[in-house]
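Note to self: the last two entries modelled the partners one at a time, which told us nothing about the interface. This time every component goes in together.
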Amino acid sequence: MILLLLILIPLLTGLLTFLSKNAAKNIALVSSFITLALAAYVSANIGGANVQAWSCQWIPAIGAQLSVAADGMAAMLCLLTGIIFPVVLLINRNKEIENQASYYALILLSQAGLMGVFLAADALLFYFFWELALIPVYFLCSRWGGERRIAVTFKFFVYTFVGSLMMLAGLIYLSMQNTGANSMSIASIITVGKSLPGVQQQIIFWLLFIAFAIKMPIFPFHTWQPDAYEQAPTQVTIILSALMVKMGLYAVLRWLIPVLPYATAYWANTVMTLAIIGIVYASLIAMVQSNIKRLIAYSSIAHMGLMCAAAFAGNDLSHHGLLVQMFNHGINITGMWVIVNMVESRYGTLDLKKMGGLATTAPAIAIALVVIAFANIALPLTNGFVGEFMLFSGIFQGASQYHVIFMVIAGLGVILGAIYTLNMVQSVAYGENNSGAAIVSKMSGAEYAAIAIIIALIIVLGIFPQPLLDLVLL
Amino acid sequence: MIQLVYLVPMFPLIGFLINGLGWKSMPKQAAGFLASLMILASFAVSLGIFFEVKGGVADTTVPLFNFIHAGKLMIPFAFKVDALSSLFLLIITGVGFLIHVYSTSYMHNDEGVVKYFAYLNLFVFSMLLLVLGANYLIMFIGWEGVGLCSYLLIGFWFKNRDYTNAAKKAFVMNRIGDLGFLVGMMLVLYNYGTLSYQEFFGQLQSNQVAVPNNTYTWIAICFFIGAMGKSAQIPLYTWLPDAMAGPTPVSALIHAATMVTAGIYMIARSSALYNLAPLALNFITIIGLLTAIIAASIAIKQNDIKKVLAYSTVSQLGFMFLAIGCGAYTTAVFHVMTHAFFKALLFLGSGSVIHAMGGEQDISKMGGLGKKMRITQLTFFIGCVAIAGIPPFAGFFSKDEILAAAFAHNPVLYYAALAAALMTAFYMFRLYFLTFTGSFRGTHEQEHHLHESPVAMTFPLIVLAILATVSGFVGMPEVFGEHHLLNEFLSGAVHNTGEHHLEHNTELMLMGLSVGLVIVMIVLAYVRTKKPNFAPNKGLSKVLEHKWYVDEIYDAIIVRPVVAGSKFLDNVIERKGIDGGVNGIGKLLRWGSDRMRLLQNGQVGTYLFTMVIGIVLIFIIGLFFINF
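The predicted structure of the combined assembly is written out below.
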């Protein structure tokens, strides 16, 4: 029942927020902290009896149930969702947002959807939440986004919706193979999927994989992403890049690899090749971006490529590292966007060439930037390192005959990542202020809190990663 | 005492935290005092540990906590104390302390001095982690940590774009090496399932694990790639000369006590592995020798006091790798130690000169400084004779040992290394004479300003000068019938191969040859600088002045093509190719729908007509393909 609350609280407070007027941002913030407390409780007790799966009948005719369950992986992602939303709601508290009741309500609805995606133990319910998480984001982008928001959101919508439909088709096909009750349950889907003959597995594999690959996104299904990250309001970009992309990886781990083991093994090399090409490709493009949001967007593609490759490396170490990295990537990229948000509001531009001198004008922000940037390139004793080390080890020890090549080429991302990240730090923090704008040195209390949460997690999980490692194994 | 080893890195960490968190409110004087005190405390503990190890305490591993435990992967956060690490502890904290003391005076006017000391403490902390780690992962943590600190300190004056470029270059070049290190660790983990030195070397020696033939060589080469980055070897050396962008004491720290010695430490630590990989050792020999010669040749034509010293570091590191390549790991460690003393001395001395010259680094504008700054002159002179290899100064013993090892390995190596050593003597004394003797060539204002540095700066110079004079005696050559104390001390931790027993007569002859020629070079330097000529260089001199155009070559064959390629990917492949393709699908669908739409023209006649055609088609298909 407590799992259900994780979905219901943001859902109900989201509806409440719609009706409220000026209190919207405070209701949303309080709600997000309650959800965080709950998610923390779930993560701490995941092995115990208090956190149990819950289910009831929904649409018996097609074998669908309302059923939620959590293991370590789901709890970790719920916890991540629980941590990210307060941060999202802490920034921009002083900014005038038009029609803010709807804005915050939509943000909470997407949180409900995300929680649902991570907890759903039924294919139809999973699909339902998958869309519930996204639809608010479409509205947020198209209503509150940047100049090119309409065209960009349209493309983003069509792209991901095509993927969703392919996924739905695949899941329906799988559930139809079982004529018994509850054919949409994950247990049934796994049983059916495993026993499918080879060709059918492969067709379903691609239906599901393309849907998930678009979401992550994996090269070459990624072109919606830099535009969307750039045009979405930064708060929404955080939700997209820290959490929504994790839906894709999560779906691969939950709904693809266990369901279609034969096809997964068959196509693993292909997928890994795409993912690893994506690492180098996106890193190279990131190097020549002058828009800070696009730079981070491409760096995120590179990071996701590494994680996706590890998902298909087919060994325990890489999976374990992947789960750790999913969490830490969410933290770090959020930190990056929080900084971008502060930088953008101060310089009034996203053009790196027009920034500079932050270390002189606002040293505290510059320090935060440097810490988060180095976490982003996986410096040891920051949270990014342990996961990345395990990912590389896992890929290196992987089942593929190309495991060494894969690891070494993926490793180029380590070098290229340092280049584009340090370029960015240099353009923003060092040198002189090129913008002409007077830089506000002080961070607001809420900004300070958001940054403090991120940096504390970066350092603590960098030095003591073991609790996280233990959580995801349960 | 050994169980308290965690105190050694903890003190600098505390210093970093206090100065780092208090960067706004910390008084400037207190920051320097605190930072120096922390390193002194570390030094005291290190000294205790050193004497315990020397007293014969066996190798000890001190576990702190579980860093990573995931399935079969088990990596503790543990420290290893043995002869090698305890010696490095002394060098790092000892020289580090002197550099801290020096900095309190050198940096006292800088507005970012609190931040500076925070970084400096973090630097020492990382280096201590590097040498104390009981497995490769902890070493890697320190390894990347010093990379970070060098980045922060080289770019310390961050308003200058050239400086931040140099910082970036240092970090990226180190990262290239780090990838090698990372792959090496992957190989070890894959083949042996552990990263712990004890387990890994144990398995190597007992030969229990069957591995493919070239595994040793591959692991050794990968680790060496890491060392190339950190210890500035060809082709990854160009960051080190640029690293002088940072404050001068930082250069002393990077070049002497920390950072660049990491590569030597790593390979000496892994001697059990390298002894099984002769191919890798040969590779190291070649790289080391080439680096020693090329860097020395560049140093001859540099006019920036710090650049000369920077290239001399690169060259000396080449010597150390040459020794390693010959299997003489302890010799390399010996040279690390003596080099730490005289190079720190030289850099701090150059800082004293720059300080007196009001920031001027160009030796063509100096001259005759000795009259105004005796202590700096004298200590710098000691540094020069030490690095040139005049007995009984420290550099003589360690360099002679390297040359002897090279001769025993292959006389060709000896002659090449000797050439590099002679160039060393020449450029160091060229530097010395141009700076301290002759007449002053700078502006009148500068001349008026010349003065000896304060005690906080000259004191470290004097201590280092003493060390650079006497430290060679711990490694007396066998010829003189003395014990080689250092070799005996290190024998448990580092395993040399192929004991190089030269004939005593040969060894004495080689020694005489090198010392004699070094003196000739010094005289030559004196003659050539008597009437200094700073006319534009031509021919080979110009090539040397421009550092063999290596930076330009890298720029042309790597940097520019990569950037151009990336722009091509962004503008053409990404936007027109992939995204164009995606949009193309959209356009195609729209075009198709446009055509389909025309079918719905609202005329009943057309609808009826198509319906009839449809029925006929279904009928025909049914007739031919399906049996009713």
